[in-house]
Amino acid sequence: MTEQNADGRPDSSEQPDQTAAGSPTVAEDLLLLLFQPRSGTIAGEGTLYYVLAGAVLADLGLAGNVRTGTGRTGTMTVEAIAENPPTDHLLRASWEYVADKPRGVQTVLAATGPTLRGPLLDRLVDRGDVYRGTRKTFGVFDTTVLTEGDSGRRAGLLADVRAVLVDGETPTPRVAALAALLYGSGTLPQFDRDIPWSSPVIARAEELKNGSWGAGAAAEAVARTVTATIVNNVIVAAAVLPRT
């Protein structure tokens, strides 16, 4: 089982990262998109842990590791599919949090999100998607500096999302989840130079947020439902937090 913090939250930050060399997770791709090369900052830092936790749940939903249900009070819950655990340890931490019993989506976002930024950023650095260095501030203090790597992966992801939101292409489930999460995070207006913040784009993003991804297999229909539930909960959670 994954180690937990004193308050019961899963702690994935101390686990050895043996899966970073595999295929990037949706959460990694989302963090890479949120990285702003021009400023060296990450968009939406104030709500980032909710959004990254939502991306992890989207990953689990797309892979069939979790499903949604309805709690006694009518709120949406997430529960693990016992026979299909994820192998990626960051995803596994969230999966194990809902393995004992179904939990409300808001609860999962708040409990699993705070430890994700560091390990996910480490993966982007390890892949060469982002470079991390230091510089002196006031000639005394070391300050971390992030710059875009030479993998070209961020540009490819941005082009994929733009094709769906601007050009109306039918998305893959993964790209649909990324676009919906970007919209749900409240950061999409910051991409205006690359993705126009226009009424058609907003309308398309709303469709993706609500799970309208175009024709797909039955398994993808389940993933659409899971992701739409998660994105809507991210929006609710992010709305009450200060944006930076």
Architecture overview:
The radius of gyration is 18 Å and the shape is globular. The chain has helices at residues 26-34, 48-62, 89-97, 105-112, 117-127, 153-165, 173-185, 199-209, 218-239, and strands at 35-36, 41-42, 66-70, 76-80, 103-104, 130-137, 141-148. The chain has a single domain, classed as yeast vps74-n-term truncation variant domain like (yeast vps74-n-term truncation variant fold, Orthogonal Bundle), CATH 1.10.3630.10. Mean pLDDT is 84; it is low at 1-9 and 12-20. The chain is built from 9 helices and 7 strands. Strands 3-4-5 form a 3-stranded antiparallel sheet. Strands 1-2 form a two-stranded antiparallel ribbon. Strands 6-7 form a two-stranded antiparallel ribbon. Helix 7 runs parallel beside helix 9 (218-239). It starts with 25 loop residues before the first helix and ends in a 5-residue tail after the last helix.
Report a brief summary of the structure.
The chain has 244 residues and is an alpha+beta fold.
Features:
alpha+beta; yeast vps74-n-term truncation variant fold; three-stranded antiparallel beta sheet; two-stranded antiparallel sheet; disordered N terminus
